[in-house]
Design goal:
Dihydrodipicolinate Reductase, domain 2, Rossmann fold, alpha/beta, globular, disordered N terminus, six-stranded parallel beta sheet, six-stranded antiparallel beta sheet, 16 helices
């Protein structure tokens, strides 16, 4: 057994052969409205993390899509440390864009023994705690298209052919399992690629999916299911009770495929991550997950334009400028854009993008007093086949400034859609697995893994749980959680000890 006591009494770490245990004095301020002052609150928290990293099975819904085929090819390229030639020279596989694999976090300071000066110390995020290595994932999954992954990667036009050809034997060997599909909930233009679909009642389809998951579980210590398939339209009204959910399944009422995948995952006790904006996580689904001890996180990958929007809102509102209008336009030519070209599926995306400014607005009642807290926020998406996966995103941020002036910032972002989204898939899988090994005060996380909200446009909560949707605060919260769980005290950013 190893033990370390930090000079600061707020943290104590004990490491055994099986666990990392940390006792942490969590500090926050509780504002007293009556006295108009903040009062410090200290609560002692015990964090316990299992050290053993499992063999992880990853099951992708939409395995043969742009994201799915890029995910597998990228994993294989990194595993083989592959290089490939392009017109711009040789390139080497990497995980750039991944928070866990490529980002660092500040863990303290060190003194230069010669000069006495202080220097910052940063550590890679994936070294803070024992985490699964993405190159060791056992990947399989479902797709409505029967193409093998080599054919799918070539169809996607995301990766260089010179790379895909080097991976041909492994990619050809991967063929998606038959998928569950309710065509009423996706665009009609997807019919031409739906040649790998299962038929049956709701219950029969759930049972088939459970068998697939069980087969993956038999090969691995743990399994995570991630939806990276087509955006579905919203199911309204929402399913509010488990009884209603079970009745809809039993009586074979129309349900989106995502709900059937999610129910199958819950019944198998595996984590389900929702990378698309549809409202898969109805109140009944969250309750169902809690009942069966399963974990959920979502919804909708927050990768390019929307993540940039959270950064801009932090910057502008944090500077005291009042954002009054945000207009976002983008056009793309991949299958996601094709599916979103119909109103019923576009509406789901519009809803998920709409709420990303809410937290920044709520943070400043001076700029946004009650009754005057609305801004003009418009989102437009157009399907333009020629641009393929290289999405064009245009944003205009107009702010009210000093003495009724106006400041407008426009951005133009050419973002390769799948190459931004796939690193987030690695992150939410790696961290989702890690969080399933953590306990806080003897309790497991869940059923909502809200700490993954950093990666989602529309993070869902559990019974009113406090969740933020702001880039800076989300990243700091996630980093601080990982640091504390590993026995590293979060920064006091006043820097008083170093200034005085």
């Amino acid at each position: 057994m190893q033990s370390s006591n930090d000079l600061n009494p707020g943290l104590n770490r004990v490491e055994t052969d099986t666990h990392i245990e940390v006792n942490y004095a969590n500090r926050y301020a509780l504002f007293d409205e009556k006295e108009q002052c903040s009062k410090p609150v200290v609560t002692n928290k015990k964090m316990r993390t299992v050290k053993k990293v499992p063999q992880l099975g990853v099951m992708l819904v939409g395995l043969g899509g742009n994201n799915g085929s890029t995910f597998v090819a990228g994993m294989l390229a990194n595993k083989g440390n592959i290089s490939w030639n392009t017109k711009n020279g040789m390139h080497k596989a990497n995980f750039f864009g991944s928070f866990t694999q490529s980002a660092t976090t500040h863990v303290g300071f060190k003194h230069d023994e010669k000069t006495g000066e202080l220097h910052d110390v940063f550590k890679p995020v994936n070294t803070l705690l024992p985490m699964v290595d993405p190159v060791n994932f056992d990947v399989c999954g479902w797709d409505i298209s029967a193409q093998n992954l080599y054919e799918a990667a070539n169809r996607a036009h995301v990766l260089e052919p010179s790379l895909i050809d080097q991976l041909k034997p492994d990619l050809e060997a991967m063929v998606p399992m038959k998928a569950v599909l309710n065509p009423d909930f996706i665009a009609s233009n997807q019919a031409d690629r739906a040649d790998n679909v299962r038929l049956g009642t709701n219950q029969e389809l759930i049972d088939m999916l459970r068998t697939d998951i069980q087969n993956c579980k038999a090969r691995n210590d743990k399994v995570i299911v991630l939806w990276t398939a087509n955006t579905e339209m919203f199911l309204l009204p929402e399913i509010n009770t488990i009884e209603d959910l079970e009745n809809r399944i039993k009586t074979n009422q129309a349900l989106p495929a995502s709900v059937l995948y999610c129910v199958a995952s819950i019944l198998e006790g595996v984590t389900y991550l929702n990378g698309s904006p549809q409202n898969t996580f109805h109140p009944a689904i969250v309750e169902y997950a809690a009942k069966h001890g399963a974990l959920l996180a979502g919804s909708d990958f927050k990768s390019g334009q929307t993540r940039f929007k959270t950064v801009m809102s932090d910057f502008l509102i944090g500077s005291g400028l009042r954002i009054s209008s945000v207009v976002s336009y983008n056009h793309l030519g991949n299958n996601d854009g094709k599916n979103l070209s119909e109103d019923k599926t576009f509406r789901s995306k519009q809803i998920s993008k709409a709420g990303v400014l809410d937290d920044a607005i709520k943070s400043n009642p001076t700029l946004y007093p009650a009754g005057n807290d609305k801004i003009d926020h418009e989102v437009v998406i157009k399907y333009v086949p020629f641009v393929g996966d290289s999405k064009r995103a245009l944003d205009e941020y107009s702010s009210s400034i000093f003495m009724n002036g106006t400041n407008t910032i426009s951005s133009y972002n050419i973002c390769e859609d799948s190459l931004l989204a796939v690193p987030l898939m690695f992150d939410m899988i790696v961290l989702g697995e890690l969080f399933s090994r953590m306990e806080i005060d003897g309790e497991k996380m869940g059923p909502i893994l809200s700490y993954l909200s950093f990666f989602f446009k529309a993070p869902i909560t559990n019974h009113g749980e406090y969740v933020i949707n702001s880039f800076g605060r989300q990243r700091e919260t996630l980093c601080n959680l990982l640091k504390v769980a590993s026995g590293i005290l979060p920064d006091d950013t006043t820097l008083l000890n170093f200034k005085f």
